Fold:
Amino acid sequence: MRIGANAGVTDPGRRRRRNEDSLVIDPPLFAVADGMGGAQAGEVASRLAAAVFREYHEADALAGEKRVEAIIQEANRRIYERAQHDAHASGMGTTVTAALVEGDRIALGHVGDSRAYRVRGGTLEQLTQDHSLVADLMRSGRLTPEEAGTHPQRSVITRALGTDPSVDVDTFAVEAAAGDLYLICSDGLTTMLGDEEISRIVSEAADLDTAARALVKAANRRGGEDNVTVILFQLEDGESPGLEETVALSADGQGDPEELEDTLTGLEAPVVPASPDHTTAAWEPVGEPETRSRARAGGARRGRRIIVFVLALALVAVLLLVAFWGLANAHFVGAQSDGRLAVYQGLPYDVGGGVSLYRARYVSELRAVQLAPEERAALFDHDLMAYDAARVRLERFEAEGLP
Ligand code: CA
Structure:
């Protein structure tokens, strides 16, 4: 088996100024890394990982999963060391999802929530399992896939490179077949597009280059809330790994100027909540102005209407007070997008368009990746409670996990 065409695109998306994703197209190696961390640390982490894939040759003598694991462990070591010694990089991390094509096998290595898919016979199949909070909750039956799509902590990963001296890497191999198409992507694609949509776009595209661009464009049209990275490669019959066509688009992470213009539209656009216009329209039940001849007869009726109107207003005011009181006193434990645990005030829902019904009231230095799976399950059930109760709940884990 050999590698036929391949293509890759990375794009900042519509809402983020920086691109913290990196990609590696170095056949027979392919990888996507999605960095996290304050300031520019996320970019540093994902680029360190990508550099190891390109430059680290100590693992060349190893084969298959062993080689992929060795490269990922080396990347982890370098990011971890940098994070220990560079105050600006402290707490940084990255996902990585990598594929190595070797004869009739594809070895895969995976940490975090970037994904590898295979398209065989027109059917898209996800090969990797996300190491993320929502994937944990779905596996334990606490969350449906629909709920997971709008979950406030959907971008929180439970495993990353750079947070510990060594990392638990998922490695496995799949058998290669001619015509197989592989897709490696960051969550900026999969949080915007469902599997069916990804499958349709890939099957309708004339070639891999067009498919990769179309996927990124579709994610941006859907909101482009995160950086989007896509790698596609296809296998064909043949002896040695061939390189008929290598298209690495915008590998600097900046996007090409034409796409970038499209992408930056709306970057600075403020979030506009749903227009309240029709609520005011609903509060005009007084009706048509009455003619003078009917005015006296209508007087009593009008009086009753005014009473009903005032009562309705009072009811709305009471409901609003109850809602505000509820929001002010409801708290739940969650995690920031960089993985730090937090106590949020409000309700655990995103209503779309970047509007959330909650805000962080306390952010801990403890990260989701530092907890055991059962601890995370216990902590992230989104039970609503008073602020003090939420803090107490978090303190127990902070006492164990923080120096
Ligand atoms: Ca991401």
